[in-house]
Amino acid sequence: MKYTEEHDWLRIEGDVVIVGITEYATEQLGDVVFVELPEPGTHVSNGDEVVVIESVKAASGISAMYDGEIIAVNEALVDAPNLVNEDPTGAAWFFSIRLADMAILDSLMDEAAYKDMIA
To answer: Three-state SS for 41?
Structure first.
Protein backbone atom coordinates (compact mmCIF):
# COMPACT_ATOMS: atom_id res chain seq x y z
CA MET A 1 0.00 0.00 0.00
CA LYS A 2 0.90 3.63 -0.47
CA TYR A 3 -0.02 6.54 1.82
CA THR A 4 -0.57 10.29 1.45
CA GLU A 5 0.18 13.07 3.90
CA GLU A 6 -3.61 13.54 4.13
CA HIS A 7 -3.89 10.03 5.67
CA ASP A 8 -5.34 8.26 2.64
CA TRP A 9 -4.21 4.77 1.75
CA LEU A 10 -4.00 3.46 -1.79
CA ARG A 11 -3.89 -0.25 -2.60
CA ILE A 12 -2.74 -1.13 -6.11
CA GLU A 13 -4.59 -3.97 -7.83
CA GLY A 14 -3.34 -4.27 -11.40
CA ASP A 15 -4.22 -1.05 -13.24
CA VAL A 16 -6.77 0.01 -10.61
CA VAL A 17 -6.16 1.71 -7.26
CA ILE A 18 -8.46 1.23 -4.25
CA VAL A 19 -8.63 4.30 -1.94
CA GLY A 20 -9.56 4.66 1.73
CA ILE A 21 -8.45 6.47 4.88
CA THR A 22 -6.07 5.21 7.53
CA GLU A 23 -6.86 4.11 11.06
CA TYR A 24 -5.04 7.22 12.29
CA ALA A 25 -7.43 9.39 10.25
CA THR A 26 -10.48 7.67 11.72
CA GLU A 27 -9.14 8.20 15.24
CA GLN A 28 -8.80 11.92 14.50
CA LEU A 29 -12.30 12.13 13.01
CA GLY A 30 -14.16 10.20 15.68
CA ASP A 31 -17.38 8.34 14.87
CA VAL A 32 -18.19 8.67 11.16
CA VAL A 33 -21.91 9.36 10.62
CA PHE A 34 -22.14 10.18 6.88
CA VAL A 35 -20.22 9.41 3.70
CA GLU A 36 -20.91 10.91 0.27
CA LEU A 37 -19.31 9.00 -2.60
CA PRO A 38 -18.69 9.97 -6.22
CA GLU A 39 -20.54 8.38 -9.13
CA PRO A 40 -18.75 5.60 -11.02
CA GLY A 41 -17.57 6.93 -14.36
CA THR A 42 -16.69 10.34 -12.89
CA HIS A 43 -13.41 11.76 -14.14
CA VAL A 44 -11.40 13.49 -11.41
CA SER A 45 -8.42 15.78 -11.53
CA ASN A 46 -5.72 16.61 -9.03
CA GLY A 47 -7.30 18.72 -6.28
CA ASP A 48 -10.94 17.69 -6.86
CA GLU A 49 -12.86 16.69 -3.75
CA VAL A 50 -13.91 13.09 -4.35
CA VAL A 51 -15.47 11.95 -1.04
CA VAL A 52 -17.18 13.85 1.77
CA ILE A 53 -16.89 12.38 5.28
CA GLU A 54 -18.82 13.71 8.26
CA SER A 55 -18.16 12.64 11.82
CA VAL A 56 -19.30 13.69 15.26
CA LYS A 57 -16.18 15.90 15.45
CA ALA A 58 -15.76 17.36 11.97
CA ALA A 59 -16.43 17.26 8.26
CA SER A 60 -13.57 16.15 6.07
CA GLY A 61 -12.98 14.76 2.65
CA ILE A 62 -10.72 12.97 0.27
CA SER A 63 -9.29 15.11 -2.48
CA ALA A 64 -7.70 13.59 -5.53
CA MET A 65 -3.94 13.89 -5.79
CA TYR A 66 -4.17 12.32 -9.23
CA ASP A 67 -6.13 12.34 -12.47
CA GLY A 68 -8.30 9.37 -13.33
CA GLU A 69 -11.72 7.77 -13.65
CA ILE A 70 -13.76 6.42 -10.73
CA ILE A 71 -14.44 2.77 -11.53
CA ALA A 72 -16.46 1.66 -8.49
CA VAL A 73 -17.62 2.93 -5.10
CA ASN A 74 -18.29 1.14 -1.82
CA GLU A 75 -22.08 1.56 -1.54
CA ALA A 76 -22.03 -0.22 1.85
CA LEU A 77 -20.65 2.99 3.39
CA VAL A 78 -23.77 4.96 2.47
CA ASP A 79 -25.96 2.78 4.71
CA ALA A 80 -23.25 1.93 7.27
CA PRO A 81 -20.75 4.82 7.53
CA ASN A 82 -19.57 3.37 10.86
CA LEU A 83 -17.64 0.76 8.82
CA VAL A 84 -15.04 3.50 8.36
CA ASN A 85 -14.29 3.31 12.09
CA GLU A 86 -14.61 -0.47 12.34
CA ASP A 87 -12.43 -1.56 9.40
CA PRO A 88 -10.73 1.47 7.80
CA THR A 89 -8.13 -0.43 5.79
CA GLY A 90 -10.40 -3.30 4.77
CA ALA A 91 -14.17 -3.25 4.31
CA ALA A 92 -14.32 0.56 4.42
CA TRP A 93 -12.60 1.38 1.14
CA PHE A 94 -14.24 4.38 -0.54
CA PHE A 95 -13.66 4.03 -4.28
CA SER A 96 -11.52 2.46 -6.94
CA ILE A 97 -9.94 4.56 -9.66
CA ARG A 98 -8.10 3.94 -12.90
CA LEU A 99 -5.28 6.47 -12.81
CA ALA A 100 -4.27 8.41 -15.88
CA ASP A 101 -0.63 7.94 -14.83
CA MET A 102 0.35 5.18 -12.41
CA ALA A 103 3.77 6.83 -11.95
CA ILE A 104 2.15 9.27 -9.49
CA LEU A 105 2.20 6.44 -6.96
CA ASP A 106 6.00 6.57 -6.88
CA SER A 107 5.81 9.92 -5.05
CA LEU A 108 3.68 8.53 -2.20
CA MET A 109 4.87 7.09 1.11
CA ASP A 110 5.29 3.42 1.91
CA GLU A 111 4.04 2.08 5.25
CA ALA A 112 7.31 2.71 7.10
CA ALA A 113 7.45 6.35 5.96
CA TYR A 114 3.80 6.87 6.89
CA LYS A 115 4.33 5.40 10.36
CA ASP A 116 7.31 7.72 10.84
CA MET A 117 5.16 10.69 9.84
CA ILE A 118 2.41 9.98 12.39
CA ALA A 119 4.79 8.98 15.20
So the answer is: coil
Quick one: 63 exposed, middle or buried, by C-beta within 10 A (0-12, 13-18, 19+)?
middle
User: What is the reported pTM?
Assistant: 0.94
The tens digit of pLDDT for each residue in 8-66 reads 999 999 999 999 999 999 999 999 999 999 999 999 999 999 999 999 998 999 999 89
How far, CA to CA in Å, does 10 sit from each of 6, 7, 56, 110? 12, 10, 25, 10
Domain 2-101: top CATH class: mainly beta
